[in-house]
């Protein structure tokens, strides 16, 4: 596992539990973690923090993960920022829909520390 120290990761999820565990796992690996409760919250924080990678939950109120990902990817500034979808559903349709809005990977919840860090490692390595 590569050293992820200093990598900025944004986690967008309406579940406090998911945000918390992601924050702990990523924090232990040395990542700087930015938490957002939903798409609007994330869009408000993204320009202040310039994350290297974004995890976004598919099922969220107001603005869902697909809409959030689409908005992020439409912005020229974040077009190349990797976005990983988080979902408790692991269906082909959901994966395809995630790809359509420009997501880079699809991770099924509940995720493990290893799967979360592997996703960060894979995308941040390729971005560097």
Automatic annotation (TrEMBL):
<keyword id="KW-0597">Phosphoprotein</keyword>
<dbReference type="Pfam" id="PF00072">
    <property type="entry name" value="Response_reg"/>
</dbReference>
<dbReference type="InterPro" id="IPR011006">
    <property type="entry name" value="CheY-like_superfamily"/>
</dbReference>
<dbReference type="InterPro" id="IPR001789">
    <property type="entry name" value="Sig_transdc_resp-reg_receiver"/>
</dbReference>
<dbReference type="InterPro" id="IPR050595">
    <property type="entry name" value="Bact_response_regulator"/>
</dbReference>
<protein>
    <submittedName>
        <fullName>Response regulator</fullName>
    </submittedName>
</protein>
<feature type="modified residue" description="4-aspartylphosphate">
    <location>
        <position position="57"/>
    </location>
</feature>
<keyword id="KW-0902">Two-component regulatory system</keyword>
<dbReference type="GO" id="GO:0000160">
    <property type="term" value="P:phosphorelay signal transduction system"/>
</dbReference>
<feature type="domain" description="Response regulatory">
    <location>
        <begin position="8"/>
        <end position="124"/>
    </location>
</feature>
């Amino acid at each position: 596992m590569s050293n992820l120290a200093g990598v900025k990761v944004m986690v967008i999820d309406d579940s406090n539990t998911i945000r918390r565990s992601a924050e702990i796992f990523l924090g232990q690996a040395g990542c700087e973690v930015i938490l957002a409760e939903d798409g609007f919250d994330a869009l408000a924080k993204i320009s202040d923090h310039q994350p290297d990678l974004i995890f976004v939950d598919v099922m969220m109120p107001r603005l869902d993960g697909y809409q959030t990902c689409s908005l992020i990817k439409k912005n020229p500034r974040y077009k190349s920022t990797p976005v990983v979808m988080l979902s408790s559903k692991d269906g082909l349709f959901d994966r395809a829909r995630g790809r359509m809005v420009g997501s880079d990977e699809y991770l099924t919840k509940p995720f493990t520390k290893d799967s979360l860090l592997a996703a960060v490692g894979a995308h941040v390595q390729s971005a560097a």
